[in-house]
Write a structure and sequence with these properties.
The chain has a single domain, classed as Aspartate Aminotransferase, domain 1 (Alpha-Beta Complex). Helix content is 30%, strand content 25%. The protein has four helices and eight strands; from the N terminus they run ββααββββββαα. A six-stranded antiparallel sheet has the order 3-4-5-6-8-7. A two-stranded antiparallel ribbon has the order 1-2.
Length: 158
């Protein structure tokens, strides 16, 4: 892990491009409604049930990071929070408002949470998948798949 000497953020890649500055969760929450802050805290509590992570506040969002960023709270509105989950496949679901394709490598799935009940079992499934991305488990799976193909396993003979 590489740590930026200016802001103290930790990254997997040395000299990782980032918004370098002294940002805080407290500053991000300033002036927000008590209801929305409660949703934010609930979301983090629910995510911590999946596994540990660090919070990396930047100017425009708060990222959730394990080995890499896998989720972010992009906005705290009056009665909602906007988040995104980083996944390695594009999923179609009514819970997503939109999806950004980052070069067919990552798919950023955006959703809005208005109440605790919006964190459904389906949303939790995607949260777990994003957490796997944050721990770079998608790379281990790809390596195993590649190794299996090289050994001839899984291939069909015509």
């Amino acid at each position: 892990m590489w740590t930026c000497g200016k802001c103290g953020q930790r990254f997997v890649n040395k000299n990782q491009s980032h918004s370098c500055g002294k940002f805080s969760v407290e500053r991000f929450l300033e002036g927000k409604s008590g209801y929305a802050i409660g949703l934010f805290r609930y979301f983090l509590t629910e995510y911590r049930k999946i596994g540990p992570f660090d919070l990396h506040p930047v100017k425009t969002r708060i990222a959730l990071v394990s080995q890499m960023r896998f989720c972010a709270v992009n906005k705290i509105g009056l009665d909602h929070i906007d988040i995104h989950l980083v996944l390695t496949e594009q999923y179609s679901s009514d819970c997503f408002r939109k999806t950004d394709n980052l070069g067919n490598r990552f798919f950023v799935h955006h959703l809005r949470i208005h109440s605790k009940s919006d964190v459904t079992s389906e949303v939790r499934k995607y949260m777990r998948l994003a957490y796997r991305v944050g721990n770079r488990q998608h790379l281990v799976s790809r390596r195993r798949g590649t190794a299996l193909c090289r050994k001839g396993r899984g291939a069909t003979n015509a």
